[in-house]
Amino acid sequence: MMLADIGVLVGHAAGWAIDAAPGRTSTAVGAATGDPRSTRVVATASCTHPPSRDAAGNLTSYEPQRAVDGLSDTAWRCAGDGVGQSLKLTFTSPVRLRTIGIVPGLAKTDPADGTDRYAQNRRISRVRFTFDNGATAELSTDTSPSDRQMQNLTLDGDGVTTRTLTITILSSVPGSAQNGHAALDTVAISEVGLG
């Protein structure tokens, strides 16, 4: 089998094209870090929050592929604290992962009224990464509402070669009321970063 190295981000920011099929799967296709070989990733999840509307009434959806679309203001989202819920990335060929990161919340500011959705929603404080060989690694994140950056874990040595990556939420912290809107009991991953 051919080994493909994944670039900095899965999604548009890394030069990937997204086939956002309806439902719980998506396909990201592209060459990573200049490598002419292509790798596909399918995102599935144990839960998906129903669509909602922003302050202007625009519909927003939260399918798993939103976590791999290269856009930090979209997200995969679930109801509640998310503990035990998971997002699974399946690659069509083995990939070598040296770093894994997430944006641990809905990193969006509502364009209509300026509501900080990152602060309003729950933010993930700890996740477990599970690889297809059963190995695991955990990442604790900064849950400050002001830190909506990609938060990374560097894997030991040459990293891990895998065909799947499962991200399981272990804990989250509550959001807070923002701009006259109550806190929301939902949890999200805006983006997954792989390197």
UniProtKB/TrEMBL annotation:
Pfam families: NADase_transloc (PF25302). Coiled coil: none annotated. It comes from the Bacteria. Residues 54-192 form the NAD glycohydrolase translocation F5/8 type C domain. InterPro entries: Galactose-bd-like_sf (IPR008979), NADase_transloc (IPR057561). This is NAD glycohydrolase translocation F5/8 type C domain-containing protein.
